[in-house]
Design brief:
This protein has 10 helices and 6 strands. The protein is of the alpha/beta class. The protein has one domain: Uracil-DNA Glycosylase, subunit E (3-Layer(aba) Sandwich), CATH 3.40.470. A 6-stranded mixed β-sheet has the order 1-3-2-4-6-5, sandwiched between helices. The longest helix is centred in the middle third of the chain and has 18 residues. The protein is globular, with a radius of gyration of 20 Å. It starts with a helix and ends in a 17-residue tail after the last helix. Bound molecules: uracil. The site of uracil (URA) has 13 residues, from helix 4.
């Protein structure tokens, strides 16, 4: 069985933390196994819990619009969350729940090996930009262990706040050039052309 499918099988029956008790369905993630860009949100909301798919409610609608604004389709990227089961009442995930779920996220990143990981919101950001504040670092990238991390506001937060909405829209526009840059820097260096010595006969 492909590694991602195997991981999904584990997640949908996972009992590692108490979120399992109240979920309708676990939400492992979805998208291409060879996606170049991986988006990581916080945790499933009501719609996601019902459908077992990430970002399918209003925040997901907005994420789809953001993707379309840079010519990307959902099917081309990979989308998941820090915790795979809905925290009751959409409360924030607890540190222990994030910890229990972390191994799934690590396996997902190892399988997919994205060029760029986009963190959506504070909880996802905290995993890769520890100690940083989202209001300061949104729209900025950081390179590490073969991946470029890019921090964005959470689409749900940006849905109802005009200033955040503009910020997330602008930040999204930085994604294609950032991806292109990761490809350029990964390309093998072309040997520099030595200036050719003129021979006596050409002078
Ligand atoms: N918010 C999230 O963080 N993830 C989802 O999947 C949906 C809403």
């Amino acid at each position: 069985m492909p590694a991602l499918a195997e991981l999904y099988q584990e997640v949908i029956v996972c009992q590692r933390c108490d979120l399992a008790k109240q979920r309708t369905r676990a939400v492992p993630g979805e998208g291409r196994e060879d996606a170049e860009i991986m988006f990581i949100g916080e945790g499933p909301g009501w719609h996601e819990d019902q459908q077992g798919r990430p970002f399918v409610g209003p925040a997901g609608q907005f994420l789809n619009e953001l993707l379309a604004s840079v010519g990307l389709k959902r099917e081309e990227v990979y989308i998941t969350n820090v915790v795979k089961c809905r925290p009751p009442g959409n409360r924030d995930p607890l540190p222990s729940e994030i910890q229990s779920c972390r191994e799934y996220l690590e396996r997902q990143t190892r399988i997919i090996r994205p060029r760029v990981i986009v963190t959506l919101g504070r909880y996802s950001m905290a995993l890769f930009f520890p100690g940083k504040s989202i209001s300061k670092i949104h729209g900025t990238a950081q390179k590490g262990d073969g991946v470029t991390y890019f921090a964005m506001y959470h689409p749900a937060a940006a849905l109802h706040q005009q200033s955040l909405r503009q910020a997330i829209q602008q930040d999204m526009l930085k994604l294609p050039p950032l991806l292109a840059e990761t490809k350029r820097s990964a390309a093998p260096e072309q040997p520099e052309q030595q200036p050719r010595q003129l021979t006596m006969f050409e002078i």
